[in-house]
Design brief:
Length: 186
């Protein structure tokens, strides 16, 4: 009986430790993750440059005249997960339908968006529960103009074992389009 109680005590201690995540400030300073977020920012900047070239070509033909430099929300994606069960960033390819690794317990998710979303319209849900936005990192182009965001979401449910996550937002300016992405977190 004593061995059983000792084993249960050790298991419960391990379970508590496994469900706790490091602080997000520490996680986003990891050199490998910094390199990853820089790559995400370059993707958004490249998309912005192509969008600007497209607008310039339309404007030179007299087809449109942009009213403001703020780009509409063009796309957003769920790009990574770090959980208590898999305590490293699991980077997700834009064309993936699920995470690469099994996750569980408390977790962080990272999303990227190009353009301006209405802040109150941003919604990240997993299995129907809305997660809180833990941190929002602006993406600026070479001219120091804000063109997108990398957002970090926090799921505090330690009982999480997997499920469907969705991320959506609505453009802050015309045409007020809604963008969304879906990812199964294993």
């Amino acid at each position: 009986m004593k061995k059983l109680l000792m084993g249960l005590s050790l298991f419960s201690t391990f379970s508590v430790m496994a469900s706790e995540l490091p602080k997000l400030d520490t996680l986003v300073q990891d050199p490998a993750f910094v390199e990853y977020t820089e790559a995400l920012k370059k993707e958004v900047i490249s998309t912005h440059e192509n969008y600007q070239l497209y607008l310039d070509s339309l404007q030179s033909k007299g087809e449109i005249v942009p009213m403001a430099p703020a780009p509409k929300l063009t796309y957003l994606e769920i790009r990574g997960v770090l959980s208590a069960l898999y305590p490293q960033w699991d980077y997700v390819n834009p064309s993936s339908f699920s995470t690469n690794e099994d996750h569980g317990g408390e977790f962080y998710a990272v999303t990227v968006e190009y353009g301006y979303a209405t802040p109150s319209s941003r919604r990240f849900q997993v299995n129907g529960s809305t997660l809180s936005l833990a941190l929002s990192d602006p993406i600026k182009n070479a001219s120091n103009v804000l063109i997108g965001y990398i957002n970090y979401w926090h799921n505090t449910q330690t009982s999480f074992t997997g499920g469907t996550s969705t991320y959506q937002a609505t453009s802050i300016n015309f045409p007020y389009n809604k963008e969304d992405d879906r990812l199964y977190i294993r």
